[in-house]
């Protein structure tokens, strides 16, 4: 599977994820931050926030947001 190249900064990935995808999916930044801090079954029970520090794991979070954008929740 090809890796998606995204304009994500490792300085503030939460803001960049909000601007890229999450702003379309969540009612508020607070809701998004709550989602980031909950274990996620699509990430094998990991919290999305714990995956933002490496390019490979950040891509996993972006893929989950993309799936959510298309209505795929599990």
Quickly count the domains: 1
Shape: globular
DSSP, total strands: 0
Structural class: mainly alpha
The poorly predicted ranges are none
Strand content is under 5%
**DSSP helix fraction:** 40-55%
Q: Report the radius of gyration as a whole number of Å.
A: 11 Å
Average pLDDT works out at: 89
Please give the alpha-carbon distance between the first and last residues: 19 Å
Strand and helix order: HHH
Largest β sheet strand count, sense and barrel closure: none
Number of helices: 3
InterPro entries: Xre/MbcA/ParS-like_toxin-bd
Domain Antitoxin Xre/MbcA/ParS-like toxin-binding: 23-71
Protein name: Antitoxin Xre/MbcA/ParS toxin-binding domain-containing protein
Describe the structure.
Pfam families: Xre_MbcA_ParS_C. This is Antitoxin Xre/MbcA/ParS toxin-binding domain-containing protein. This protein is an all-alpha fold and 74 residues long. The longest helix has 15 residues. The protein has one domain. The protein is globular. It contains three helices and no strands. α1 runs parallel beside α3.
Keywords:
mainly alpha, 49% helix, 74 residues, 3 helices
Ordered list of secondary-structure elements with their pairings:
Layout: H1 13-25, H2 29-36, H3 55-69
Quick rundown:
This is Antitoxin Xre/MbcA/ParS toxin-binding domain-containing protein. The chain has 74 residues and is an all-alpha fold. It is built from three helices and no strands.
């Amino acid at each position: 599977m090809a890796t998606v190249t995204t304009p994500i900064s490792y300085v503030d990935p939460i803001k960049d994820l909000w601007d890229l995808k999450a702003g379309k999916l969540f009612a508020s930044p607070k809701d998004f931050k709550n989602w980031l801090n909950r274990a996620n079954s699509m990430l094998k029970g990991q919290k999305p926030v714990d995956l933002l520090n490496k390019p490979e794991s950040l891509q996993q979070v972006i893929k989950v947001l993309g799936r959510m954008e298309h209505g795929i929740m599990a």
